[in-house]
Specification:
Layout: E1 3-6, E2 11-14, E3 18-20, H1 21-32, E4 44-47, E5 61-65, E6 68-70, E7 78-83, E8 86-90, E9 96-97, E10 106-110, H2 121-133, H3 135-142
Parallel strand pairs: 2-6, 3-7, 5-8, 7-10
Antiparallel strand pairs: 1-2, 4-5, 8-9
Length: 158
């Protein structure tokens, strides 16, 4: 599997149709550790693999630091995949950006997942407003009495 980094374009190019987050991370770390790249800014940060139990752990999240992944232009349509973790990117100011660089005839699938997420107060208020504004619709979908008069709880962190 060929994964190459280009500091000038800040693109990580994958020649295969599939790549894992771990493979991307290993390639990035190997590239960063080469003598000629030691003075280059960090390409990515990674977090995860904390043990949850004897048989499970948290997945890896790879955050690209003003870099993107490209599968390169292809002669005919193809679906490419980034697997086994989460891929995100931020620009030089820390603002989230797409981690994928568009390529001709390429559709990229990135399976993202989250667990134990925290919902911000504004999101809770938005959900509450939606529920309060649509009780008839929600009751029709989820059964009578499911939403009318329900107490909105903010959770244990509020």
């Amino acid at each position: 599997m060929a994964v190459t980094l280009n500091q000038t374009t800040q693109l990580i190019t994958v020649s295969d149709d599939i790549v894992s987050i771990q493979n991307l991370l290993n390639t990035i770390r190997d590239w960063e550790n080469k003598q000629e790249n030691m003075d280059c800014p960090q390409v990515a940060e990674a977090a995860g693999k904390q043990v949850l139990s004897e048989t499970s752990s948290v997945g890896v999240t790879l955050t690209l630091l003003n870099w993107k992944v490209s599968f390169g232009d292809r002669p005919s349509p193809v679906v490419c995949s980034i697997t086994d973790g989460n891929l995100v990117a931020v620009d030089e100011t820390g603002t989230p950006m797409s981690p994928i660089e568009a390529s001709t005839n390429v559709t990229v699938m990135v399976a993202q997942s989250s667990s134990a997420t925290m919902i911000q107060s504004a999101e809770i208020d938005s959900i509450k407003e939606t529920v309060e504004a649509n009780p008839a619709v929600l009751a029709g979908t989820h059964g009578s009495g499911s939403w009318e008069g329900a107490t909105i709880r903010r959770g244990i962190f509020k």
